[in-house]
Amino acid sequence: MVEATTKGLTVGVGYKIVGFNTVLKMKGSAQGVSNDLTLNADLSLQNTKALIRRIESNYTQPTSGTNTFSVNFTASYILSKRITVAMYFSHQANTPVITTGSYPTTSTSYGLSLNLNLAR
């Protein structure tokens, strides 16, 4: 018999600073636009594995699986009615359950994005 299981836990928090432009003390704020700063962070743990069970001989052997840890962070700031600037960071670490088949891997990405809305 083959048993496949996935267990995971994700915790996320977010916070919005309304009127962040007043904190920065920037002049020339666009009329009718609330310059909000939105912060979001997620922390995730996940365990995926597959087991072969031989019930008649009471034998269990893992065949595949990974333990995954990930951290994600985003911050977005509304500059005007049409322009939003966002920053993101993502880190993910995978550790295999069986070390003979694959190696631990880690990936990290980060960046800055500029969103221009051309709609009326």
Report on the architecture of this protein.
The chain has 120 residues and is mainly beta. Strands 1-2-3-4-5 form a five-stranded antiparallel β-sheet, with no helix packed on it. A hairpin with a 4-residue loop joins strand 3 and strand 4 (83-96). The termini are far apart. The protein is 4% helix and 67% strand. It is built from one helix and five strands. The longest helix is centred in the first third of the chain and has 5 residues, at 20-24. The model has no long low-confidence stretch (mean pLDDT 87).
Give the topology, please:
Layout: E1 2-17, H1 20-24, E2 37-54, E3 59-78, E4 83-96, E5 105-116
Antiparallel strand pairs: 1-2, 2-3, 3-4, 4-5
From the structure above, extract its key features.
120 residues; mainly beta; 1 helix; 67% strand
E-strand count: 5
Give me the strand/helix succession.
EHEEEE
Biggest sheet layout: 5 strands, antiparallel
Q: What ranges have pLDDT less than 50 throughout 5 or more consecutive residues?
A: none
Classification by helices and strands = mainly beta
Q: What is the overall shape?
A: elongated
Query: Strand content of the residues, in percent?
Result: over 45%
